């Protein structure tokens, strides 16, 4: 009987001790659960804050990319315009230079033609003077011949020659006169022929000189084709980063429930925006750095978080 009571007492003590141990385990589990829930809420709040900061940074990067894109395009437009205006000035300068050379060529051409005409006239006048001199010389010789003939006639009359001897002497004198005048006439024709040949030679020489002047004459220059106007540099289309929503934050932690962070997806999206803008910057011929623009403290407006998204 005593043993039974002892066994019952031991069982009671064991039950009490087991209840105390179980109560302690439950309390420890509750404390651990509370600590985990507190930690989950802190992590959720930190993740939410980080998403907001990442969004603000992505907006800065996007705005800087838009400004840099516009700066590069405006720089290219101005460069193309300056190059276009410079080419127009060069084209006009070259045309004006060619026109001055053409006008000088025309002046020299006119002077050469005038000189050729003057040279031809002087040569013609010289030939006409030689012909006139030859004609005068032949006329003088003809007069001498006639005078000699008359003198011979007078001498014959003084001698008193009559009959056949007188007639024969007169025939001889007339024959000599005709022969001498024929020689003079041939000389006159020969002088005129030489003059005509000389005049033709002078005309041919002038024609050749005119052809040489024409060959050296410069063609009138034409304006070069119009230089096409520069095209406006196309601007790249850029998509602004999406503002975070409650779906990016995920539900608030619930005590006792498993926690899944919604940070990774939005962070990946922000990284894609940043890399895309950086890619546009590096594709430009001008060396612009997005990183340096941000690191130098550029004042960039940051979009504010909508009120409905503040938790």
Q: Helical amount among residues, as a percent range?
A: over 70%
Please state the overall shape, judged from the principal axes of the Cα atoms. Answer: rod-shaped
The unreliable regions are: 276-311
Radius of gyration: 63 Å
Largest sheet: none
Helix count?
A: 5
Question: What's the rounded overall pLDDT mean?
Answer: 76
Compute the separation of the termini in Å.
Answer: 70 Å
Q: What fraction of the residues are assigned to beta strands by DSSP?
A: under 5%
Number of strands: 0
- Give the H and E element order: HHHHH
Plain-language structure description:
The protein is mainly alpha-helical and 311 residues long. The chain has a domain at 96-215. It contains 5 helices and no strands. The chain has helices spanning 2-159, 163-215, 246-249, 263-282, 290-295. α1 (2-159) runs antiparallel to α2 and α1 runs parallel beside α4 (263-282). The chain is rod-shaped. Mean pLDDT is 76; it is low at 276-311.
